[in-house]
Design goal:
Elements: H1 2-23, E1 29-33, H2 40-56, E2 60-64, H3 71-79, E3 86-91, H4 92-101, E4 113-122, E5 124-128, H5 137-146, E6 152-155, H6 158-171, E7 176-179, H7 183-192, E8 197-201, H8 202-210, E9 215-219, E10 247-253, H9 258-273, H10 275-283, E11 286-288, H11 293-313
Parallel strand pairs: 1-2, 1-3, 6-7, 6-8
Antiparallel strand pairs: 3-10, 4-10, 4-11, 5-8, 5-9
Helix pairs in contact: 2-9, 4-11, 6-11
Amino acid sequence: MQNFRSLVFFIMAGLAPGCAFAQFPVKPIRVIVPFSAGSTTDVIARILTLPMQQALGQTLVIDNRPGGDGALAGDMVARAPADGYTLLVATNSPLSAVPHLRKKPPYDALKDFAPVSMAGYYTFLLAVNPAVPAKSLRELFDYARVNPGKLNYASGNTSSIVMTAMLNSLAGVKMVHVPYKSEPPAVVDLISGQVQVMVTSYSTVAAHLRDGRIRPIALALNQRSPLLPNVPTVAEAGMPKFSITPWCGVFAPARTPVDMVARLNREINAAIKRPDIRAQFDQQAFAGEGSTPEWLDAWVKSQFNIWGTAMRDAGIQPE
Protein backbone atom coordinates (compact mmCIF):
# COMPACT_ATOMS: atom_id res chain seq x y z
CA MET A 1 0.00 0.00 0.00
CA GLN A 2 2.86 2.37 0.87
CA ASN A 3 4.45 1.77 -2.53
CA PHE A 4 1.12 2.45 -4.25
CA ARG A 5 0.73 5.77 -2.40
CA SER A 6 4.25 6.75 -3.34
CA LEU A 7 3.55 5.97 -6.98
CA VAL A 8 0.39 8.08 -6.92
CA PHE A 9 2.31 10.93 -5.30
CA PHE A 10 5.00 10.96 -7.96
CA ILE A 11 2.45 10.76 -10.76
CA MET A 12 0.51 13.72 -9.35
CA ALA A 13 3.74 15.67 -8.83
CA GLY A 14 4.62 15.09 -12.46
CA LEU A 15 1.20 16.33 -13.56
CA ALA A 16 1.25 19.40 -11.32
CA PRO A 17 3.11 21.73 -13.69
CA GLY A 18 0.72 20.85 -16.49
CA CYS A 19 -2.21 21.54 -14.19
CA ALA A 20 -0.73 24.92 -13.27
CA PHE A 21 -0.39 25.84 -16.93
CA ALA A 22 -3.96 24.75 -17.63
CA GLN A 23 -5.28 26.91 -14.77
CA PHE A 24 -3.13 29.97 -15.55
CA PRO A 25 -3.79 32.64 -14.48
CA VAL A 26 -5.05 32.13 -10.94
CA LYS A 27 -4.28 35.64 -9.65
CA PRO A 28 -3.99 39.21 -11.00
CA ILE A 29 -1.25 40.00 -13.52
CA ARG A 30 0.89 43.11 -13.11
CA VAL A 31 1.52 45.02 -16.35
CA ILE A 32 4.50 47.39 -16.13
CA VAL A 33 4.28 50.45 -18.38
CA PRO A 34 7.54 52.43 -18.76
CA PHE A 35 5.83 55.81 -19.16
CA SER A 36 3.47 58.01 -17.18
CA ALA A 37 -0.29 57.62 -16.93
CA GLY A 38 -1.92 59.36 -19.86
CA SER A 39 0.98 58.74 -22.24
CA THR A 40 0.20 57.06 -25.55
CA THR A 41 1.82 53.82 -24.38
CA ASP A 42 -0.21 53.90 -21.18
CA VAL A 43 -3.44 54.40 -23.14
CA ILE A 44 -2.54 51.55 -25.52
CA ALA A 45 -1.80 49.26 -22.57
CA ARG A 46 -5.17 50.02 -20.96
CA ILE A 47 -7.06 49.47 -24.22
CA LEU A 48 -5.31 46.13 -24.76
CA THR A 49 -5.59 44.76 -21.23
CA LEU A 50 -9.35 45.25 -20.84
CA PRO A 51 -10.40 42.48 -23.28
CA MET A 52 -7.48 40.35 -22.08
CA GLN A 53 -8.67 40.34 -18.49
CA GLN A 54 -12.18 39.45 -19.67
CA ALA A 55 -10.76 36.44 -21.53
CA LEU A 56 -8.30 35.42 -18.81
CA GLY A 57 -10.74 35.86 -15.94
CA GLN A 58 -8.22 37.85 -13.90
CA THR A 59 -7.46 41.52 -13.36
CA LEU A 60 -4.52 43.01 -15.26
CA VAL A 61 -3.17 45.80 -13.07
CA ILE A 62 -1.39 48.66 -14.87
CA ASP A 63 1.73 49.79 -12.98
CA ASN A 64 3.28 52.97 -14.44
CA ARG A 65 7.03 53.12 -13.83
CA PRO A 66 8.49 56.03 -15.84
CA GLY A 67 12.16 56.83 -15.75
CA GLY A 68 15.39 56.41 -17.65
CA ASP A 69 13.76 56.17 -21.10
CA GLY A 70 12.07 52.96 -19.96
CA ALA A 71 15.12 51.48 -18.25
CA LEU A 72 13.50 51.52 -14.81
CA ALA A 73 10.51 49.48 -15.97
CA GLY A 74 12.70 47.14 -18.00
CA ASP A 75 14.93 46.44 -15.02
CA MET A 76 11.91 45.67 -12.82
CA VAL A 77 10.56 43.09 -15.25
CA ALA A 78 13.96 41.56 -15.99
CA ARG A 79 14.33 40.88 -12.25
CA ALA A 80 10.74 39.69 -11.69
CA PRO A 81 9.85 36.01 -11.16
CA ALA A 82 9.38 34.15 -14.45
CA ASP A 83 5.91 32.95 -13.52
CA GLY A 84 3.70 34.74 -16.05
CA TYR A 85 2.37 37.27 -13.54
CA THR A 86 4.58 40.23 -14.52
CA LEU A 87 4.50 41.71 -18.02
CA LEU A 88 6.24 44.64 -19.69
CA VAL A 89 4.57 46.80 -22.34
CA ALA A 90 7.85 47.73 -23.99
CA THR A 91 8.65 50.13 -26.78
CA ASN A 92 11.78 50.78 -28.78
CA SER A 93 12.95 53.09 -25.95
CA PRO A 94 13.86 50.42 -23.35
CA LEU A 95 14.73 47.64 -25.80
CA SER A 96 16.20 49.38 -28.87
CA ALA A 97 17.61 52.66 -27.54
CA VAL A 98 18.61 52.23 -23.89
CA PRO A 99 21.11 49.43 -24.61
CA HIS A 100 23.02 51.84 -26.86
CA LEU A 101 22.50 55.01 -24.81
CA ARG A 102 24.12 53.59 -21.68
CA LYS A 103 27.57 52.13 -21.22
CA LYS A 104 26.17 49.81 -18.55
CA PRO A 105 22.45 49.18 -19.21
CA PRO A 106 20.66 47.52 -16.26
CA TYR A 107 19.59 44.50 -18.33
CA ASP A 108 20.39 42.55 -21.48
CA ALA A 109 17.68 43.50 -23.96
CA LEU A 110 18.22 40.33 -26.00
CA LYS A 111 18.42 37.81 -23.15
CA ASP A 112 16.46 39.04 -20.13
CA PHE A 113 12.96 39.06 -21.66
CA ALA A 114 10.61 36.49 -23.16
CA PRO A 115 8.81 37.99 -26.19
CA VAL A 116 5.04 37.46 -25.99
CA SER A 117 3.51 39.43 -28.89
CA MET A 118 3.91 42.56 -30.94
CA ALA A 119 1.17 45.08 -30.17
CA GLY A 120 1.66 47.54 -33.03
CA TYR A 121 3.33 50.69 -34.32
CA TYR A 122 3.17 54.36 -33.39
CA THR A 123 2.61 57.06 -35.99
CA PHE A 124 5.58 59.43 -35.96
CA LEU A 125 6.17 62.19 -38.48
CA LEU A 126 8.70 64.82 -39.41
CA ALA A 127 7.10 68.25 -39.08
CA VAL A 128 8.26 71.84 -39.47
CA ASN A 129 7.20 75.30 -38.47
CA PRO A 130 5.31 76.84 -41.44
CA ALA A 131 7.94 79.58 -41.69
CA VAL A 132 10.42 77.00 -42.99
CA PRO A 133 10.36 77.26 -46.81
CA ALA A 134 10.02 73.51 -47.41
CA LYS A 135 7.05 71.32 -48.22
CA SER A 136 8.91 68.08 -48.90
CA LEU A 137 11.79 66.14 -47.40
CA ARG A 138 14.06 67.03 -50.33
CA GLU A 139 13.26 70.74 -50.02
CA LEU A 140 13.90 70.64 -46.27
CA PHE A 141 17.32 69.09 -46.61
CA ASP A 142 18.24 71.29 -49.57
CA TYR A 143 17.44 74.29 -47.39
CA ALA A 144 19.46 72.83 -44.50
CA ARG A 145 22.49 72.33 -46.77
CA VAL A 146 22.61 75.95 -47.91
CA ASN A 147 21.84 77.19 -44.38
CA PRO A 148 24.08 75.04 -42.15
CA GLY A 149 23.39 75.47 -38.44
CA LYS A 150 20.36 77.71 -38.95
CA LEU A 151 17.73 75.04 -38.34
CA ASN A 152 17.09 73.81 -34.81
CA TYR A 153 15.40 70.45 -34.28
CA ALA A 154 13.59 69.44 -31.13
CA SER A 155 13.38 66.00 -29.52
CA GLY A 156 11.03 64.85 -26.79
CA ASN A 157 11.97 61.16 -26.51
CA THR A 158 14.50 58.60 -27.71
CA SER A 159 12.50 57.94 -30.88
CA SER A 160 12.73 61.54 -32.03
CA ILE A 161 16.41 61.77 -31.07
CA VAL A 162 17.46 58.71 -33.05
CA MET A 163 15.14 59.19 -36.02
CA THR A 164 16.19 62.80 -36.61
CA ALA A 165 19.84 61.88 -36.18
CA MET A 166 19.44 59.11 -38.76
CA LEU A 167 17.70 61.46 -41.20
CA ASN A 168 20.48 64.02 -40.81
CA SER A 169 23.11 61.34 -41.32
CA LEU A 170 21.46 59.96 -44.46
CA ALA A 171 20.97 63.45 -45.89
CA GLY A 172 24.41 64.66 -44.91
CA VAL A 173 23.13 67.81 -43.21
CA LYS A 174 23.70 69.48 -39.87
CA MET A 175 20.93 70.86 -37.70
CA VAL A 176 21.22 72.01 -34.10
CA HIS A 177 19.72 69.57 -31.57
CA VAL A 178 17.56 71.07 -28.81
CA PRO A 179 16.52 68.28 -26.41
CA TYR A 180 13.34 68.43 -24.28
CA LYS A 181 12.20 66.17 -21.47
CA SER A 182 8.93 65.39 -23.27
CA GLU A 183 7.06 66.22 -26.46
CA PRO A 184 4.49 68.84 -25.31
CA PRO A 185 6.95 71.64 -24.42
CA ALA A 186 8.92 70.91 -27.58
CA VAL A 187 5.76 71.28 -29.66
CA VAL A 188 5.03 74.65 -28.02
CA ASP A 189 8.43 75.88 -29.17
CA LEU A 190 7.96 74.37 -32.63
CA ILE A 191 4.73 76.36 -33.03
CA SER A 192 6.36 79.57 -31.82
CA GLY A 193 9.39 79.10 -34.06
CA GLN A 194 11.97 78.70 -31.27
CA VAL A 195 12.77 75.41 -33.01
CA GLN A 196 11.94 74.75 -36.64
CA VAL A 197 11.97 70.97 -37.10
CA MET A 198 10.75 68.03 -35.03
CA VAL A 199 10.06 64.32 -35.32
CA THR A 200 6.99 63.82 -33.14
CA SER A 201 4.12 61.44 -32.49
CA TYR A 202 0.93 62.20 -34.41
CA SER A 203 -1.26 62.11 -31.32
CA THR A 204 0.74 64.96 -29.76
CA VAL A 205 0.37 67.34 -32.72
CA ALA A 206 -2.89 66.26 -34.39
CA ALA A 207 -4.80 69.43 -33.49
CA HIS A 208 -1.92 71.66 -34.61
CA LEU A 209 -1.70 69.87 -37.95
CA ARG A 210 -5.40 70.49 -38.53
CA ASP A 211 -5.18 74.22 -37.84
CA GLY A 212 -2.00 74.65 -39.91
CA ARG A 213 0.32 75.73 -37.10
CA ILE A 214 2.61 72.80 -37.95
CA ARG A 215 3.35 71.43 -41.46
CA PRO A 216 3.81 67.67 -41.93
CA ILE A 217 6.68 66.62 -44.19
CA ALA A 218 6.99 62.81 -44.03
CA LEU A 219 5.83 59.82 -41.99
CA ALA A 220 8.14 57.40 -40.17
CA LEU A 221 6.00 54.41 -41.16
CA ASN A 222 6.24 51.56 -43.65
CA GLN A 223 3.09 52.78 -45.41
CA ARG A 224 0.92 55.88 -45.52
CA SER A 225 -1.50 56.56 -42.71
CA PRO A 226 -5.24 57.07 -43.30
CA LEU A 227 -4.92 59.94 -40.83
CA LEU A 228 -2.59 61.79 -43.24
CA PRO A 229 -3.22 60.20 -46.64
CA ASN A 230 -1.43 62.95 -48.57
CA VAL A 231 1.76 62.81 -46.52
CA PRO A 232 4.38 60.40 -47.94
CA THR A 233 6.49 58.02 -45.91
CA VAL A 234 10.17 58.84 -45.49
CA ALA A 235 10.99 56.07 -47.97
CA GLU A 236 8.54 57.46 -50.53
CA ALA A 237 10.03 60.92 -50.01
CA GLY A 238 13.42 59.70 -51.19
CA MET A 239 15.08 57.93 -48.26
CA PRO A 240 14.49 54.17 -48.66
CA LYS A 241 17.38 53.39 -46.28
CA PHE A 242 15.51 54.96 -43.37
CA SER A 243 14.64 51.85 -41.34
CA ILE A 244 13.48 52.99 -37.90
CA THR A 245 9.87 52.40 -36.90
CA PRO A 246 8.60 53.19 -33.37
CA TRP A 247 6.94 50.05 -32.04
CA CYS A 248 5.31 48.48 -28.99
CA GLY A 249 5.23 44.88 -27.78
CA VAL A 250 4.49 42.76 -24.73
CA PHE A 251 7.21 40.85 -22.89
CA ALA A 252 7.61 38.64 -19.84
CA PRO A 253 10.77 37.87 -17.84
CA ALA A 254 13.13 35.41 -19.50
CA ARG A 255 12.41 31.73 -18.85
CA THR A 256 8.66 32.30 -18.38
CA PRO A 257 7.07 28.90 -19.21
CA VAL A 258 6.17 28.60 -22.90
CA ASP A 259 2.63 27.45 -22.04
CA MET A 260 1.97 30.71 -20.21
CA VAL A 261 3.54 32.77 -22.99
CA ALA A 262 1.35 30.94 -25.51
CA ARG A 263 -1.82 31.67 -23.52
CA LEU A 264 -0.97 35.36 -23.21
CA ASN A 265 -0.05 35.52 -26.89
CA ARG A 266 -3.37 34.02 -27.89
CA GLU A 267 -5.37 36.55 -25.89
CA ILE A 268 -3.31 39.54 -27.06
CA ASN A 269 -3.77 38.60 -30.71
CA ALA A 270 -7.48 37.96 -30.21
CA ALA A 271 -7.88 41.40 -28.58
CA ILE A 272 -6.01 43.21 -31.36
CA LYS A 273 -8.26 41.64 -34.00
CA ARG A 274 -11.43 42.97 -32.35
CA PRO A 275 -12.98 45.86 -34.36
CA ASP A 276 -13.77 47.86 -31.23
CA ILE A 277 -10.18 47.60 -30.02
CA ARG A 278 -8.79 48.56 -33.42
CA ALA A 279 -11.11 51.57 -33.47
CA GLN A 280 -9.73 52.70 -30.12
CA PHE A 281 -6.17 52.19 -31.38
CA ASP A 282 -7.00 54.30 -34.44
CA GLN A 283 -7.98 57.17 -32.17
CA GLN A 284 -4.44 57.05 -30.77
CA ALA A 285 -2.87 56.86 -34.26
CA PHE A 286 -1.62 53.41 -33.30
CA ALA A 287 -1.52 50.64 -35.91
CA GLY A 288 -2.37 47.51 -33.94
CA GLU A 289 -0.63 44.35 -35.12
CA GLY A 290 -0.05 41.11 -33.23
CA SER A 291 2.57 38.44 -33.86
CA THR A 292 3.99 35.16 -32.68
CA PRO A 293 6.62 35.22 -29.92
CA GLU A 294 9.17 34.01 -32.46
CA TRP A 295 8.42 36.88 -34.85
CA LEU A 296 8.73 39.44 -32.07
CA ASP A 297 12.04 37.91 -30.97
CA ALA A 298 13.45 38.33 -34.49
CA TRP A 299 12.06 41.89 -34.70
CA VAL A 300 13.68 42.93 -31.41
CA LYS A 301 17.04 41.62 -32.58
CA SER A 302 16.79 43.42 -35.94
CA GLN A 303 15.72 46.71 -34.33
CA PHE A 304 18.47 46.40 -31.73
CA ASN A 305 21.03 46.33 -34.55
CA ILE A 306 19.33 49.05 -36.62
CA TRP A 307 19.09 51.50 -33.70
CA GLY A 308 22.66 50.77 -32.66
CA THR A 309 23.98 51.43 -36.15
CA ALA A 310 21.89 54.61 -36.52
CA MET A 311 23.16 56.00 -33.20
CA ARG A 312 26.80 55.23 -33.99
CA ASP A 313 26.50 56.75 -37.47
CA ALA A 314 24.93 59.86 -35.93
CA GLY A 315 27.73 60.17 -33.37
CA ILE A 316 25.50 59.55 -30.34
CA GLN A 317 27.76 58.35 -27.53
CA PRO A 318 26.59 56.13 -24.64
CA GLU A 319 26.67 57.72 -21.22
